[in-house]
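Hallway conversation turned thread

IA: we were arguing at lunch whether anyone had actually written out Transposase end to end. Turns out nobody had. So, for the record, here is the sequence (499 residues) and right after it the structure tokens. Reply here if something looks off.
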Amino acid sequence: MTIPTELEAKILRYFHVEHWRVGTIAAQLGVHHATVDRVLSQAGLPKVERAARPSLIDPYLPFVVETLKTYPRLSASRLYAMVRERGYRGGPDHFRHLIAHVRPRPRPEAFLRLKTLPGEQAQVDWGHFGKLTIGRATRTLMAFVMVLSFSRAVFLRFFLDAQMANFLRGHVAAFEHWGGLPRVLLYDNLKSAVLERQGEAIRFHPTLLELASHYRFEPRPVAVARGNEKGRVERAIRYIRDSFFAARTFSDLADLNAQADTWCQGQAADRPCPEDRARSVRAVFEQERAHLLDLPPVPFPTDEQVAVSVGKTPYVRFDRNDYSVPHTQVRRTLTVVASLEQVRVLDGATVIATHARTFDAGAQVEDPAHVAELVARKRAARQHRGQDYLAQAVPISATLLIKAAERGEPLGSLTAALLRLLDSYGAAELTAGIEEALAREVPHQNAVRLALERRREARGLPPPTPVVLPADRRVREVVVRTPALGDYDHLHDDPPKEV
């Protein structure tokens, strides 16, 4: 710490003119005695050696020094416990202060400034940018970052996880963005690149090797605990956090990536190049572009492929959501092939279902044709479908159905009656009617209907009379004549007496 010039002059004057001791100067000026020693030594005076006072740790110092020589990273708390077992009775704070002076200091390491040729190398890494809420799902927002080491051109693309499929998509998008690729790609030891490493023996991820073979680049991991070897991409991620992501608003992931593309081609490209600050990154990249490798005619496939099992219901589960399939595919194993926009379900090489992809959680994505065919074939499926629709529109209806089932009521007719009341009165009124029926402990369709009629009459509204006429004209024009009720009077006559 730098001390003021005036304080340094006072220390020298008190020592030379007033002949004060080091401890007296430190006490009067309110500084540590080591500060006074440093000022005097910088002035060319030998350090004043003070008589060492005996300390509780003196008998244990040889043990402490020898232990730290063997285990230099041993924590002070563990070392304190060890000397306590050997009889030391001092406090932990004082002990920690004392061993700080005898702990061996690591020798600082010097690093070479790494330079690369144009088109020779790019550095790749992931950056974590918090969470993103989509419907009922909370997804991790990850930034795929690739930086050309010569020009410092930055490619940025956001994804909802750091899985292998998005790792591949980031590479392909970066290569297409630049119109080429470098000869070497430098990675940290992340699982998408390196599966296992023992010294210099490296086992790469086989999918990454397929990507490298397709584009003809060399994947190269940095040495363990050598973050300086990929400092360009780490500095680029810090630059992205401060200059792009901070205080930025966006509506969805597509909007964020559109803003990222604009930023990469604008502000990030116009900044001065760190290697030649007289030129911009854009100008240096134009020089580097001619040295990049050409792209192959066909991009590397990046769709996710997952084998899925269909249960009793005609849906496949993929990425926390359910997608419908034809009911003929139940109890089978199918293949899901998914891009960021679309989910396809394949039976062998045949596509049997196509859906728009959702990143929600617990969503049920359906093709109406799949459901309609199943409903037409199975009446039980129709009833179950009606209960699902009723539960979504009026959640309290589930409680009514449970109570009715406990009393042995037929759920099919009850569900159909509630659906008719829903169409006639609406979800809000039906909810109030069901609540009144449950309060009266009468889980029956008539109790709900009477409650709705009482609420309607209390407000002076006419009864709902939805009329659905059949499509056949002959049926619509049928005349129904009211029978004479006198024909039924004989039913009340006394039966003839037997003789």
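OS: looked through it. The first helix runs from residue 5 to 16.
IA: good, adding that to the notes. The radius of gyration is 40 Å.
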